[in-house]
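We treat protein structure as text, and this decision shapes the records that our systems exchange. This encoding replaces a full spatial description with a residue-level series of whole-number codes. Below, we set out a record of this kind in full and without editing:
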Amino acid sequence: MMPTRRIKKINGIEYWYEDIPYYDKEKKQIRHKSKYLGRNVNGEPVRVRDALNSSENICPVSKPLKAYNYGELLPLQWITDELKIGEYLGDLFNGKERNMILSMVFNRIARPTAMYNLKTWYESSALSLKWPELPLKSQNISNLLSKVGDSDIPSTFMGKMFRNLGTKSTLIYDLTSFSSYSQMMNLLEYGYNRDGLDLPQINLSMIVDKEKGIPVMYDIYPGSIVDVTTLKNTIKKIKAYGVEDYTLVMDRGFFSKGDIEELLHEEVPFIMPAAMILKSVKQLMSSVQKDIESPEYLHKYNKKPIFVKPVTLEEKEFKINGYCFYDPKREIEEKNAFYSRIYDVKEKIEETAIPGWRKAGEVFKERAGYMASFYSWKQIDDHFKITIKKNAVSQRINRMGKFFLFYNGERGWMECLTV
């Protein structure tokens, strides 16, 4: 039984197949199987890959001339259309500038590169077909960015985002700093450096719409501006954008008398964990520990037991309500991690000799890091002898598994915990 070749026509295109007969012992009959040979090119089977590489077997017109990156841009273009970002930018820039900005944004997300390489990336992407001949040379990019930075365009854009997205519920607010050696940034100033660096910095604040999961506002300030001033300005801008009935969710970095007074003065609803920096907070924690495990405070969260006790923090300047949460499982996990860490750091400090040209105190602080307050030390020859401070450890252990959440407004414990 000899195989035969035949042509199949699929969607108007001809393909060669080899028909191979064989004997099926089970069914005791002749059967056939088909083997693909290639596309019909000039009466002969040619594999597609071979055809693409052969100028003899395929017409040059049907060869691909260039490949463009397209797939990585699809979700970005969809998000841009869904949030109407292109529309808002179109109100602020001419068409070419708008497309330049979107190209820069897409590149920064999909395949970050130096600005002088942006044109090369753009030419290899499908954007060069959608938005042809964009002037993406370094000088043009610098001029456009300068135009944005020296104007109120960012503020106007954020106002459009706020109003059209209907942002009005839960806003997550945070603040960070960026240090730099630059001599060209006029906002760089010396201030409290969170990283402990002796460098000027810029403060960046950002607000995220929790429900939509996207940033809706940012602002930059000189590094010397303190947090409470930044918070004041942020609250003013939110009001200016017409946002009402919102709740600010902040981390414990904002837990200070100044920030809390400002929030209460402006009648801003907020939810914020407490930092153990105020004497009144430490006293409240000591008081709560006496009966936090009382059955009346027992609840379940994510199918696990948790104790929740309503509390009130009183200062001379203000009074705020909150909850103390105690998670027994979290307490065990935190203790295990803490004990392991405190042992490892002690061992690390003791096992390595102190360099003769350095001060022992500086070396100790460097090796102990944020754990330094849990140790006392003395130098014996060129090594440390470390003692773990019982009282410091005891105070830290007593707080494990427990934390405060304070709020302004009407809030149940579950809302405070899950918002």
User: Anything to note?
Assistant: The first helix runs from residue 48 to 52. The chain has a mean pLDDT of 88. The longest strand covers residues 29-41. Residues 4-62 form one domain.
